Amino acid sequence: QVQLVESGGGLVQPGGSLRLSCAASGFTLDYYAIGWFRQAPGKEREGVSCIMTSDNSTYYADSVKGRFTISTDNAKNTVYLQMNSLKPEDTAVYYCAADFWAATVQTMCVMPGGFWGQGTQVTVSS
Predict the structure, then answer these.
(1) Which residues have a Cβ under 8 Å from the Cβ of 65 and sit 6 or more positions away?
(2) CA distance 105 to 120
(3) Residue 18 region, left (φ>0) first, then alpha (ψ -120 to 50), else beta?
């Protein structure tokens, strides 16, 4: 069974850090585009960061550049999103997605396809 499972969300104070994990099962992440997306209440879904596992090219939304880092661990078949200097506006449900057919990381983050995890809540509040 193909599955993506996110974890690592929670409540953190502004300026704090969290690391989200996206564990894949039923397939290997090799040659997939993987993306992290978020959706806050009343807002459209936003592509936060994406990575191509074939060449490790990455994409970041302007809103998270310099604060978030996406990475992969092939041995664990897992993708991570390290989030530093968190702000209240980062509050959202975060989802990961995997698409074998995405041509570029930009394509993945702007027009995601493939399959999705169930999401994990991130709340940044004092």
Answers:
(1) none
(2) 22
(3) beta
Distances (CA, A) of 4 to 22, 35, 77, 95, 99: 6, 11, 10, 9, 12
Instruction: Give the model confidence (pLDDT) of 64-86 as tens digits.
Output: 999 999 999 999 999 999 999 99
The runs of H, that is alpha helices, within 33-104 are none
Q: Which of 46, 24, 50 is nearest to 91 (CA)?
A: 46
Quickly tell me which residue has 């074998």 as its tokens: 100
Residues 21-57 have pLDDT tens digits of: 999 999 999 889 999 999 999 999 999 999 999 899 9
